[in-house]
Amino acid sequence: MIHSETSQWIPVTNPATQELIAQLPCATEAEVNRAVAAAKAAFDSWKEVPVGERARLMLRYQALLKEHHDDIATLLSRDTGKTFEDAKGDVWRGIEVVEHACNIASLSMGETVENVARKVDCYSYSQPLGVCVGITPFNFPAMIPLWMFPMAIACGNTFVLKPSEQDPLTPMRLAELFKEAGAPDGLLQVVHGGKEVVDQLLVHPDTPAISFVGSVAVAQHIYRTGTHHMKRVQAFAGAKNHMVIMPDAQKQQVISNLVGSSVGACGQRCMAISVAVFVGSANEWIPELRDAMAKVQPGAWDDANAGFGPLINPQARERVLRLIEEGKAAGAECLLDGSHCRVDGYPDGNWLGPTLFRKVTTEMSIYREEIFGPVLVTLEVGSLEEAIGLVNANPYGNGTSIFTASGAAARKYQHEIQVGNVGINVPIPVPLPFFSFTGWRKSFCGDQHAYGKQAVRFYTETKTITARWFEDDIAAGPNMSIHLK
C-alpha cells in the first residue's frame, strides 16, 4: 500500500449515522500513472504464468473470502448501511464468480481443426490483453469488483480497480485478501478518486479494456470516451425492471417476491423490481401487496428485524423524495408513503420507508426514471400482449420477470420480451456465474457482458494459427527414419 501525496480528500460516512468513518485520498495524476505502470510491468511476467497456477491463485482466494465472509459483510454493512443479511448476499455472489474463475483452464480453451487443407491444420488460442480497468458503483462494493478483476486476472491480465468513493473500505479489504492469497506485486492495483481519475484511466494508452457498472449518463460517457480511444468497453447502466403478474399466478408467492425485490437493499440495485404490471383480475391483489409492504421497515445493519438499510447518502434520499412528490403531483395514487420514515436511535440516517403507487402512467417521472429507492409503481393492463408491449416500449432492458402458472404464457413472454435477463416465477433474474449477466438496450453499452464465457472473450484476444509442415524436412537418422509412401 502506498500513502497518497494528494491534497484532496473525500469524507466517507456511515449512512445510518453520518459518522465519519474514513478519509479517502483522491489519487494524483502521477499516482494513477504509477499504478498503471506497475500493472503493466507485472503483466510481462503474469501473462507467462501457466493457466493452472492462475487457477490455483483463485482457489486460494475464494477460500480466504469464505473464511472472512462474515467479517467482510460486517465491514460492508458499515460502509453502505446494508443489513447484515443483504451484505452477506453481496459477498457471497462475488465469491461465486471467483469460484467460476477457478475453471479458467477449461473456459479459455481454443478451437482446433485438422486438415483444413491437405496436411494443413488450423487452431486458435485466447491470449490476454494487458492492463484492464474496473470502475465500480457504491451499491455492491463486494460483488461487482469480484465480477471483474478475478476473471480478468485469471485470463492472464493485470488490473486497476477504481471503486466508488462512497464506500471504498470493502474493495480495499478484497484487495488485501487477494494479496494474502499470493497475488504477485502489481497484479491488482486500487486507485481512489472521482471523475478526474476515471477520465485519466479512460484515455491512458496502456489500458486496453474498461469495465463499468453505474448510471446511464456515466456509462454512456465511459463507452464513448473509451471507444473513442480505441479501447474495448463493457458499461452496465441503469434499469427499470418490470414484473408481469398473470391472474393464474400464486398470489402469496407474487406478493412475497414483489416485496423483497422492490425494497430489498433499499431498492438500490440495478435488478430491483420497480414496476409491477398486473394483468386482468390480478390487480385485486394490490391492497394485500400494500399491507405486506407496510410491514417491512428499515433499520440499522445489526437489527435482525430490519428489512433493509438506509439510502447511501442524503443526496440520494432527497432525489427519491423529489420523485415521490412528482408522482403525487402527476396524479398517481400513493397507497403507501415512506417519505417521513424514522428509525429510533438513528435520527440522522438516510431513511426512507416502503412506498407504493397505483394509477401510474408511462408519462410520469416515477415510471420513466430509475428511482433507486424502496419505491414500487404499479400499472394495470388487460392482456399479456399489452404487458409485453409496455415492457418492450421502455428504453431499459436489464431484467424482467413473469409470474404465471401457464407454460405457454411463460414461453411467449420469454420469447417476445426485449430484455436481457428474464425470470419465470423468480423476481430478480441475476444469472449464476457460469452464464453471463446480459442487460440489453439502454441498460448496456458494449458487446461482451460480465462473467461467464462472455467475460473470457472480453478479457482476451483470439489468435488463430494456420500451420503446414513438410514431411521432406523430417531429419533422417538411426532413430528418426520413417517410411514414406
From TrEMBL:
Q: Which key words are in the record?
A: NAD, Oxidoreductase
Q: What is its EC number?
A: 1.2.1.27
Pfam families documented for this protein? Aldedh
Which Gene3D superfamilies does UniProt cross-reference here? Answer: Aldehyde Dehydrogenase, Chain A, domain 1, Aldehyde Dehydrogenase, Chain A, domain 2
List, alphabetically, the SUPFAM superfamilies matched. ALDH-like
Keyword Translocase on entry: no
Q: Classify the source by domain of life.
A: Bacteria
Q: Which residues cross the membrane?
A: none
Could you tell me which residue ranges the Aldehyde dehydrogenase domain spans? 4-465
**What family does the entry list?**
Belongs to the aldehyde dehydrogenase family.
| NCBIfam families (UniProt xref) | MMSDH
* Protein name listed in UniProt: methylmalonate-semialdehyde dehydrogenase (CoA acylating)
